[in-house]
Design a protein that fits this description.
- The protein has about 200 residues and is of the alpha+beta class.
- The protein has 6 helices and 7 strands, in the order ααααβββββββαα.
- About 35% of the residues lie in helices and about 25% in strands.
- The longest helix has 20 residues.
- The radius of gyration is 20 Å and the shape is globular.
- The termini are far apart.
């Protein structure tokens, strides 16, 4: 019996280790991704780095090179490849935050929840009552994935005055989430309701 149990443990252990060590990828990126891989995947960033070779004193170059070489914190926006299912949609971007020579956060608008299917079943879902200054009321929706290596949310802002009501997806490191959570619900509302 002990040999059978030992055999099962040895058989299952590599599968469990592999399952835990493979990061969740969204649009080819994952939280903790090394900056070298990030540059390889993002043509816009590679083009900006080429411009920086010619104009190293430009302010965006100092931030970009600082992030790549020293691990400084910087935010970068990159164009999303057009969505073939929504050809009339405006060209979107993904906003990235790099720090410590790694990807620590990414944010983008979602055209379809299938874009985040790799996250699996959410940890929680909740409705958030909201209202405008003129008295209009609506309910927003927050979906959360609280994973071992990262934290992800999809926030659906149903404010009737918004022109673009696509959900906002955010995936971030646990440390980044803790940093932003210190602001509590105010931080969620600020992220979810873009200024006009």
């Amino acid at each position: 019996m002990r040999k059978l149990i030992a055999s099962l443990i040895l058989w299952f252990t590599p599968a469990l280790v592999h399952a835990q060590s493979v990061p969740v990828q969204i649009r080819g990126h994952f939280i903790g991704e090394p900056v070298e891989r990030f540059i390889h995947l993002e043509a816009d960033v590679r083009e900006e780095l080429e411009v920086c070779d010619q104009h190293p004193r430009a302010s965006f170059c100092q931030q970009l090179v600082g992030a790549m070489e020293r691990g400084d914190r910087t935010e970068i926006s990159a164009s999303i490849t057009p969505d073939l299912d929504h050809p009339d949609a405006s060209k979107d971007t993904i906003n990235f935050v790099l720090e410590g020579k790694k990807l620590v956060k990414m944010t983008m608008l979602l055209n379809d929840m299938s874009d985040v299917a790799a996250l699996g079943h959410p940890s929680s879902e909740s409705d958030v009552a909201s209202h405008g200054a003129a008295g209009a009321k609506w309910t927003n929706h927050l979906t959360t994935w609280d994973m071992q290596d990262c934290y992800a949310t999809v926030y659906q802002d149903n404010n009737p005055s918004l022109e673009d009501r696509r959900p906002i997806f955010t995936m971030e490191s646990r440390e980044e989430h803790a940093r932003e959570s210190t602001g509590g619900a105010t931080a969620v509302a600020a992220k979810a309701t873009p200024a006009k």
